[in-house]
Amino acid sequence: MVFRDVLNSGKFVVTSEVAPPKGTNLDNLRHHIDLLKDKVDAINVTDHQSSVMRFPSIGGCLAIKEQGGEPILQMTCRDRNRLALQAELLLAYSRGIRNVLCLTGDAVPVGDHKEAKGVFDLDSVQLLKTIRLLETGKDLGGNDLDGAVEFCAGAIVTPEANPIEPQLIKFEKKVEAGAEFFQTQGIYDLDNFGRFMEYARQFPVKVLAGIILLSSARMAKFMTENVPGIFVPQNLIDELAAAPKGEALSRGIEIAGRMIATLKKDAICDGVHIMAIGREEVVPDILAAAGM
């Protein structure tokens, strides 16, 4: 079933993601695709995540298609101007890729090519509008296309941002620009996320809660202190710290599974987006821990 149909089917949707390699050896990537393709409804391929140069998202999406999976192309506006973004969308569509996640992109200084120039010709809202324009058979220059596109387009939102108001304004702009689904930044406070969902339910979009696997108490503390929009409650950090030596990852899998089970049981949102960040092979374990 194509991803748009899954989103509109009423089922609890599960997506995950794979990180392309820094190089041309795709063995690991293909292994992770094989592990995930029958366990999740679609697989994102990150696009130079954290501004680190890697094999391109579109290349990873083509590998997913070749292996019988459903890809979600991530596109950041940081690296390309409007010519390149539109051209890549045409290429993606011509090769059977039908899902796009629109991102502005992390700042260049956090990555491994600090001398690179960020482009930011468009932002994520404008990229969503561009997709909807291309679907009408026109490009951003007002020219006719010989063959249009059709995409299920999504965006991201950060429900734990503080203050939250700028995120809500951007969320509404993205909905107006044509976003059909949202994958959130990692969430850990389900009460707070529930309040965000009460607001989000006003809009005709699907929201997938971002679940980032916590592999240690140290990682949880680091993310809380250094990653904007992520807050891991102290009780979860304590739970990870109390795990017997060598069992913190298992405890992290348990925590992620427990959260997914609650989100599903209480129908808080429309699904989850699981980010295992370098540990993609445990995504099936997380789903098992969630009873799925």
Structure overview:
- α5 packs parallel to α6 and α9 runs antiparallel to α10 (248-265).
- The chain has helices at residues 3-7, 27-36, 57-66, 82-94, 124-134, 165-177, 190-200, 217-226, 234-241, 248-265, 283-289, and strands at 13-18, 42-45, 71-76, 99-103, 152-157, 181-186, 206-212, 271-275.
- The protein has an 8-stranded parallel β-barrel, surrounded by 5 helices.
- The chain has a single domain, classed as Alpha-Beta Barrel (TIM Barrel).
- The chain starts with a helix and ends with a helix.
- The protein is built from 11 helices and 8 strands.
- The protein is α/β, with parallel strands linked by helices and 292 residues long.
- The chain is 40% helix and 15% strand.
Question: What is the SS-derived class?
Answer: alpha/beta
| Cα separation of the termini | 19 Å
Rounded Rg? 19 Å
Beta strand %: 15-25%
- Sketch the major β-sheet: 8 strands, parallel, barrel
Question: Count the strands?
Answer: 8
Portion of residues in helices?
25-40%
Total count of helical runs of at least 4 residues = 11
> How many distinct folded domains?
1
- What does the overall shape look like? globular
CATH class: Alpha Beta
